[in-house]
């Protein structure tokens, strides 16, 4: 039992503003409202405000035959569950309280059920079934389970901990933002989860991980509507029966742990979990230069994708490629193609700007500089152009990471261009937004893509694109505003470059196409994915 001071021994009289002022760090952890701060006060609190009892009435078995704080091994407990530090469990008393009242149901048996406590920012209503429990006759009274709405477990295991923000992470983040921002319109609850490699189980993410997921390197602050506070593996949550849940994987599973795909497959199979995966591409399976990750990616495909209930591809091209690669497999999951949106993050659609006179032509060359995307080839053709046309005022701006095999070629191209190729390195979102706004056209001449984010992002900003006439790039470019050529042919690439630099009327024509096009948004995309996520989910 937790004893609190007489002044604050009930929710009605709780001086939440004073508690907030005395604990300014809680704001950054997502504790803003009276309900949230009361939850923190009751469930976490401070040593000086609480008496942490040894709780002789809690029986445990197996791992630690203890029922008092004196023999509690707080060091081992802390090492096993490092996330507790981020949630305010620092002292021996606090860790023992967590062990006794929340615990991790692994290695010992708890003879009471700790119902998950949730709170809502938007609805301003307390969703905590009981904020305290009573001890009677030296035994804990069982607490009534309240069944939750159908649940979508949204996997963010990599993005919630890593600073990498590739196209895959962008999809995961902005799709989640749409669901959070329209939470009241949905008939399900969304819980953000990750893989716990120690427990070999799916567990909820903590508030700091969720905050990092939404807001790292982003310009707008997003807070989760419901913060989940039961960190047991999801299969132990009796209030959310797995028959009423689905797992959604918008990111790759093999990036963090190479063993994860097989471990995850065992976990999903053991608990009969319904799973849906987004498939971005099968590049490592079809391009020899990616054989360094071929085995890991193939393991992911055969352990996770082929055992999923449904796969959502990001383009019709990716769906076709996957079916072609799996032509001899007669037991594929259901495949649905939902094309990614054109919207660039949370930015509003920008109309093309028309100018009669171009003082300078500025060409953008985005993306990780690697052989598949052919940036080095484009730079060499650009150098050829400026040597043949020395009086034309033109520059090429490239940015992104550089793979090792391209570093020397990049340096040589910059040197040969005599100041007309500018490499910016890795840039932030605002710098990228500025470049899109102030450049003439973008080049994206990749040999193979699952989608082609730079094409859609450029069109969203009203800027024409020189791109490939095949694969997913042709699919994205089909809305208009793109100058498409066979980018396996160097002559066609050079001719296209020459045409777009020297003919502003063609740029203007492409801008007119952009101006009359209709572009999908993250909201449009989220509605289509929502339809697939909620099919056959009980009560929806």
TrEMBL record:
InterPro entries per the UniProt record, alphabetical: Glyco_trans_1
GO MF: glycosyltransferase activity
Chain ranges passing through the membrane: none
Residues annotated as domain Glycosyl transferase family: 358-512
Pfam family, one: Glycos_transf_1
Name this protein carries in UniProt: Glycosyl transferase family 1 domain-containing protein
């Amino acid at each position: 039992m937790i004893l609190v001071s007489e002044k604050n021994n009930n929710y009605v009289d709780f001086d939440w503003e004073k508690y907030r002022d005395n604990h300014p760090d809680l704001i950054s952890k997502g504790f803003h409202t009276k309900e949230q701060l009361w939850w923190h006060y009751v469930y976490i609190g401070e040593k000086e405000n609480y008496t942490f009892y040894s709780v002789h009435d809690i029986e445990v078995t197996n791992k630690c035959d203890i029922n008092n704080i004196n023999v509690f091994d707080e060091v081992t407990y802390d090492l096993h569950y490092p996330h507790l530090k981020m949630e305010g469990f620092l002292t021996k008393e606090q860790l023992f309280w967590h062990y006794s009242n929340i615990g991790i149901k692994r290695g010992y048996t708890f003879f009471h059920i700790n119902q998950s406590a949730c709170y809502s920012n938007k609805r301003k209503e307390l969703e905590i079934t009981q904020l305290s429990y009573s001890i009677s006759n030296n035994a804990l009274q069982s607490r009534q389970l309240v069944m939750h709405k159908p649940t979508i477990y949204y996997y963010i295991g990599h993005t919630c901990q890593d600073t990498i923000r590739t196209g895959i992470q962008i999809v995961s983040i902005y799709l989640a933002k749409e669901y959070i921002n329209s939470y009241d319109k949905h008939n399900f609850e969304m819980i953000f989860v990750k893989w716990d490699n120690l427990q070999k189980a799916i567990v909820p993410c903590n508030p700091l991980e969720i905050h990092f997921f939404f807001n790292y390197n982003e310009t707008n602050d997003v807070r989760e509507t419901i913060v989940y506070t039961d960190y047991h593996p999801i299969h132990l949550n009796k209030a959310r029966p797995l028959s009423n849940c689905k797992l959604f994987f918008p990111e790759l599973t093999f990036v963090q742990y190479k063993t994860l795909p097989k471990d995850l497959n065992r976990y999903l199979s053991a608990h009969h979990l319904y799973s849906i995966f987004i498939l971005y591409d099968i590049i490592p399976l079809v391009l020899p230069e990616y054989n360094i990750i071929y085995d890991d990616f193939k393991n992911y495909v055969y352990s996770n994708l082929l055992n999923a209930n449904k796969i959502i591809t990001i383009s019709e091209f990716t769906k076709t490629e996957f079916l072609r690669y799996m032509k001899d497999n007669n037991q594929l999951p259901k495949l649905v193609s939902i094309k990614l949106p054109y919207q660039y993050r949370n930015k509003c659609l920008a109309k093309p700007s028309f100018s009669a006179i171009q003082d300078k032509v500025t060409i953008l060359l985005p993306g990780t500089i690697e052989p598949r995307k052919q940036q080095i080839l484009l730079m060499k053709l650009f150098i050829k152009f400026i040597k043949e046309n020395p009086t034309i005022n033109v520059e090429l701006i490239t940015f992104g990471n550089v793979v090792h095999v391209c570093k020397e070629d990049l340096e040589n191209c910059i040197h040969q261009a005599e100041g007309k190729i500018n490499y910016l390195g890795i840039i932030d979102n605002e710098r990228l937004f500025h470049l899109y706004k102030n450049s003439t056209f973008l080049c994206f001449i990749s040999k193979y893509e699952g989608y082609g984010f730079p094409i859609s992002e450029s069109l969203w900003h009203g800027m024409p694109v020189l791109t490939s006439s095949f694969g997913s790039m042709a699919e994205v470019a089909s809305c208009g505003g793109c100058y498409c050529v066979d980018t396996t042919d160097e002559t066609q690439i050079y001719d296209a470059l020459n045409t777009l630099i020297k003919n502003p009327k063609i740029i203007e024509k492409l801008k007119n196409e952009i101006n009359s096009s209709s572009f999908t948004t993250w909201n449009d995309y989220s509605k289509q994915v929502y339809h697939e996520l909620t099919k056959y989910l009980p009560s929806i």
